[in-house]
Design brief:
CATH class: Alpha Beta
CATH superfamily: Glycosidases
Number of domains: 1
Strand order of the largest sheet: 1-2-3-4-5-6-7-8
Order of helices and strands: EHEHEHHEHEEHEHEH
Largest sheet: 8 strands, parallel, barrel
Radius of gyration: 19 Å
Distance between the termini: 26 Å
Strand content: 15-25%
Structural class: alpha/beta
Shape: globular
Amino acid sequence: MSAAGPDLPPLGQRVQFGAYVDGMIADPSKLLAFEKQLGRTTEVASYFYGFGDEFPAVTEQTFARGGTREVLLSWDMGPTRFIDWSTGVHDAYLRRIAAHARAYPYQVFVRPWPEMNGDWQDFQPTAAGTEKHGGTPAQFIAAWRHVVTTVRNAGGDNIKWVFNPTADTYPETTDVRIIWPGAEYVDVLGLDGYNWGVGGPFRWRSFAEIFHVQYTRLTALHPSAPVWICEFGSKEPAIDDGAPVDPTHSKAAWVRTALASTAFPRITTLVAFQVRKERDWRVDSSAAALAQLQRGLA
């Protein structure tokens, strides 16, 4: 349930906070600069890898900050199909990752096939199984289980597996309940969600509106795993950032309401997507928004 507990503190006071900062892989000082701007350290460093990348390694050592910061890796599984993974085509690659993990002194959180339920993904599991790099729900489940089992059996126990759909649940997305691999194969429940603002097919949505339905579904699937918001952001209504200026809404108010929430008791982590992309998702898109984030996390 997302209902508030009797003594649950506001969300901003009970979570670890992290970020992906645009360009931080090439230049780790960008994360440090973000921390300086924020006036606090981050507890999670989030970034993106692709098929063929091997980890954890030197980059993860840098961001782990001596084990005081968690590392969260989005792992794009590349030009493959689910059946390739479940039948062992990439087992040698998985064993190399496990070998890296054995040599790595900390835990690392990995989200394979991130936002796999989204209808924009070419690896979305569908009944027909016709997406270019996808397959059917059953094939996805088999692939996920094989990846996790292979890495664990090869000694990569410090890799923690994050099942990370998007918060979207409109009809064209895949229902997470039919692609759930089982609690024994998942360490963390992840969610990505964004407030796209008013314009086109979108409307202004609060943090609670974005995450409530999928949070409820995921927490019903796993009785105890923590929930990480692996990506979040909001349109900046003060500017045209891909959606029009919107004088009726406030990003600062959106942030304030999100961090003041006493719902979602299993959310333990918030990771900001500090990028200007489809919208200006950055937490400092306005001075007022940044101030509310700083206040809410204090």
